[in-house]
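Case 390 in the screening queue. Each case pairs one protein sequence with one candidate compound; here the compound is nickel (II) ion. For every case the pipeline is the same: read the inputs, emit a complex structure as C-alpha cells, and attach any notable structural observations.

Predict complex for case 390.
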Amino acid sequence: MMSILQEAESLFTYTQSLRRDFHRHPELGFKEFRTASIVAQELRKLTLDVTTGVGETGVVTTIEGASPGEVALLRFDMDALPITEQTGAEYASENPGVMHACGHDAHTAIGLTVARLLHAHRQEIHGSVKLVFQPAEEGMGGAEKMIEQGVLENPRPNFTLALHMWNERPVGWIGVTSGPAMAAAEIFHMRITGKGGHGAVPHLATDPIAAAAQIVTALQTIVSRNVAPLQTAVVSVTMIHGGEAFNVIPPEVELQGTIRTFEPATRQLVIQRFEQIVSGIASAMGCQVELKIESLTPAVINDAQLSARIREVATKIFPTDEVAGDFRTMGSEDMAFMMRDIPGCYFFIGSANHEKGLDASHHHPRFDVDERALPRGAALMAAAVLELLR
Ligand code: NI
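Case 390 output:
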C-alpha cells in the first residue's frame, strides 16, 4: 500500500500543472474569477457538490466520509499581489503588474490535490471535510466576507486547518507550532498638522517635520522600554510624507505603519503607549495630530492539542524532515478570523531552495518556491485530516 506521501507524489504532475497555470494567470483579491472557475471545475470532476460565489469569488465543497463524525474545515487562499514579476520563470505571470508572490497559487493547487487524496480515502473518514477556497487574503477581508456569508455554519466545523509555503526555510522543513503562530496586525495612519512657512523663518512656523522626527524616534521606545523583554512586539513606521521644496516648511506630514503583537495584553499596552507618545509629542511641539489605529487581523493562535497531533503526523510521514514546534512569525493572516472561535492549526511548509535561487522572500518580485514542497503540503494536510477524523 502506498503511503499518503507517495500518493501525493504520484499526483505531482497534476499539482504542478495547476500551480503553474495559476501562477501564469494571477488575479487580485475578489477578482479570482478564472482561478475560482478552475477550482470549481476540478472539484466537480470528483462529482462533488460545489458552491461558488461565497464571499464574492470563494468556492466551497464538502467531502462526506463513510460515517457521521466531526467536521473539518480546510482553507486555501487564492489571491495574488499587485507586483510585477521578475522571476524569469517559464510560467511567469502573463497578467502585467499582478503576481503570485506569496505562494497562494501553490496553496490552491495543494487544496485541489488534497481534495483528490481525501476523496479517494473517503471510506476511512468519519465525519466530513469542508474545503474552502478563499479570495482576498492579502489584507482585503476575504475570510471575514466568507464568514459573513456563513462558511462557518451548516455544518459548523469542529476544527480548522490551513497551511502556507514558507520561503524562510528550505524544503524538508515543516513548522507546526502550538499557541501563537502569527501576529495580530494593526495599521496606523497619522496626520501631523503645524503651520507652514519659509524655511529661512522657522520661528514664524510650527514645523510638523520636526514633530514627526521626534515621534518616530520616541515610538522606538515602546518595544525597547515599555514591552517586557520576554514579550514580543513590533512597531514599524513604514511611510512618511511631507514637504515639497527645500525652502518651505510644509503645513502637514503624514505617517503610516504597522503594529504586531501576539498577546492581547501586549497589544493593549503598545496601542496605549502609542497614543500617549503621539499626542504628547505633537502637543509639546505645538502641532495637532489625527491618529487612526485600525485592527487588520487578530493573532493566529494554534490549538495546542491539535498542533501536537499534527506534529506527530508530520514526524511519521516525513521521517527525514525537520519538524519544528516553536516557529512563529510576525506576519499576519486573516485565517485568524476563522480560528478565533474554532480551534485550528496553521502550519508552514518549507519551500526554499538556495542552490536553485528559489529563496526570495514572500511578496518579493523574484519570489518562487521549490515545487517539491507541493506534495509535502498536500500529504501533511490530507494525513492530518485522516488522523483527526479516524
Ligand atoms: Ni500569503
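Case 390 observations:
- The first helix runs from residue 4 to 10.
- The longest strand covers residues 159-170.
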